[in-house]
Fold these 3 entries.
Entry 1:
Amino acid sequence: MDVIRTNSISTEAAVPPAVMLTFGVALIVGLWFIGKEVIQTVGTNLAKMHPASGFSAELAAAAVVMGASTMGLPVSSTHTLVGAVLGIGMVNKDTNWALMKPIGLAWVITLPVAAGLSAISYIVLSNIFLILRR
């Protein structure tokens, strides 16, 4: 919100409580409706997991996310964990490659769709704020 108003990013820009509440509710609703399915897909359908392999995948994903964050690289913890589970499946020769196809397709589609929606949102919001400033 601060960026649209001032056209700059402040290190101390406050996030309005309504925005935090909206995103918190959206996260909870998303987990409520599709969380179990996603956990099932990654945790058991992509590769057979047992406690030691699950721990290894989580440890590897956490190390990659922390390392990338330390270097200032934006990474997705979800994508990193899927990659770690794939690694376990490859070692155990038990990767469900048929299931990986739609996941990979979703990864490829996500970037341009998010870019397009972001551009449209920016144009709409910028025009709204220009009208309100007059």
Entry 2:
Amino acid sequence: DAFTAIETVRIPGRGGLGDPEVHLQALRVDGAEVTALRRTDEGRLELRVVNPTDESSTLTVSDRTGELVDLRGTPTGEGFDGAVSLGPWKIATIALDD
């Protein structure tokens, strides 16, 4: 199980990332390891995960929806409703809805 806490750090007078009213957000990810989390140029949160085992698993991201994208961020046409099956050693990238 993987759990990633995302903290937006703000330095007075220097700006920062994200909503200035939100100082701490949590993203609960289970069934895979998080390898990247970034904000795209379009402002969408993009999550990349890997199943680092030789067995299939189910990736879940609590309370989130979105769509699967390829490694370049191009939509694959497959929606994400909070869970997706990951084969052994599979990488998945999800563009999350706000």
Entry 3:
Amino acid sequence: MTTYLIMFTDNAGQHLGHLQTAAWSHWDACEFGWDNALKGTDDFQVFTEDAFIQMTGATLGA
């Protein structure tokens, strides 16, 4: 399994929040995102833990 971060945005691109999940595939993480979308979500992005760390320098859960 891989740890994924799902970042939710509204139609203006404002960050609404994020969730973390462990899933077998990117597709499974996307399904989790749709099933657990935050109120007002128009879009979301799914990142692996490694990609998130490379992008931001931050770690999940920090």
